[in-house]
Amino acid sequence: MSNYGYEGRPPQQGPSSAARIVPVIVIGILFAIVFGIIANACSKHDGSSSLSWSGGAERGESAESSDTVPWDYQLTEATVGDLIGGDMTLLPGNELMPNDDNYGTGDKIWVLEYMGAVMKTSADNRTDVTLTAWKPIKSYKTKTAADADIGELKLNLKTEVDLIGVYKTTYQGKTREFAVLQLPSGQTVKQPIDDDRYAKLKPLKKVGVVLEEVHDYSQYDLAYAKFRGWAA
User: Fold this and answer.
1) Is 156 in a helix, a strand, or coil?
2) HSE-up of residue 190 (Cα within 13 Å, Cβ side)
3) Which of 143, 202, 162 shows the shortest CA–CA distance to 178?
4) Cβ distance 193 to 201 under 8 Å?
5) Comparing C-alpha atoms, which of 10, 215, 97 is closest to residue 226?
6) Going along 85-200, which residue ranges are E strands?
7) How many domains does the chain have?
């Protein structure tokens, strides 16, 4: 049988390859544009995006550092007050601390107290110091035992430190003289001096001083040095 009905009809051809690809490219471009708009909008509202983190430095926000250092210790005599579980109160201030030595109410004991210093250094290298309240950290039955511990936590020593310089100021007809020192901790301190010490220190680059080295009770290697006087 002949191909009746199809004779004389030109053969039909499908769309060319180029015609099929063009719509795909157009759809892809539109999708990329829409996705870009959505992503940009999200980045403006998402506080955890990488853009928001890097933007902090560009806005000029100042970075501050904060450290807590051991500042001082003291011994106080106290009376054991109420016993609360494994703790006890200390009279007269009612401070609470562990009753490690099984004291009874009314016992007289010695208490080692700790004070720290929170040092905040600003971007312009200025340091603000805030002292913490006294905190009882250990109790003793005898003052001899307490003195032995505090003697290891607070040490006086003689050493040489850098002398940054000496200078004079005059105000309302009065002249004052100062020495500026750099301690081993990196801290810069200013001390008033008299005329004789001013003349003695003026040509020097280093000077002998007495420092008090205060160690942290829980991490002994952490220490802070404070100026306590001139070695000579």
Assistant:
1) strand
2) 6
3) 202
4) yes
5) 215
6) 87-91, 95-98, 108-121, 127-131, 135-140, 154-171, 174-182, 188-193
7) 3
Q: Same domain, yes or no, for 164 and 189?
A: yes
What CA–CA distance (Å, rounded) separates 173 from 183?
32
Statement to judge: residues 162 and 114 lie in one domain: no
Q: How much is the pTM?
A: 0.67
The Cβ of residue 120 has, within 10 Å, a number of other Cβ atoms equal to 13
pLDDT, tens digit (0-9, with 9 covering 90-100), for 79-119 = 999 999 999 999 999 999 999 999 999 999 999 999 999 98
Q: What are residue 161's phi and psi, to 5 degrees?
A: -130, 165
Residues ≥6 apart with Cβ < 8 Å to 106: 79, 80
On the 0-12 / 13-18 / 19+ scale of CB atoms within 10 A, 88 is buried
Asked whether the predicted pLDDT for residue 6 surpasses 50, the reply is no
Query: Residues near 9 by Cβ (< 8 Å), separated by ≥ 6?
Result: none
Q: Residue 165 belongs to a domain with what CATH number?
A: 2.40.50
Tell me whether residue 12 is in a domain.
Answer: no
Residues 54 and 37 in one domain: yes
CB 211 within 8 A of CB 156: yes
User: Are 168 and 218 in the same domain?
Assistant: yes
User: Residue 129: inside a domain, yes or no?
Assistant: yes
Handedness of CA 132, 135, 227, 224 (dihedral sign): negative
Q: Are 227 and 163 in contact (CB under 8 A)?
A: no
Same domain, 84 and 49: no
